[in-house]
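Revision sheet: structure tokens.
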Amino acid sequence: MKLQINDEPYEWAGENRLSALLEGLDIPVASVATLVNGEVVPMAQRADCALQDRDRVDLLTFAAGG
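Predicted:
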């Protein structure tokens, strides 16, 4: 399926669950906030979040700074 990840086109052939996408991208799930089509998907709901062709996925990481 074709996705938009952080404003970049991405072709994903894996399982259509958000949790599977994060695992496939080797994203540390505890340190990333996820949005699908502008809606926040809490960590506890990622396994139930089904992705569809042309979905927009935003992955936000937080870094300490000063």
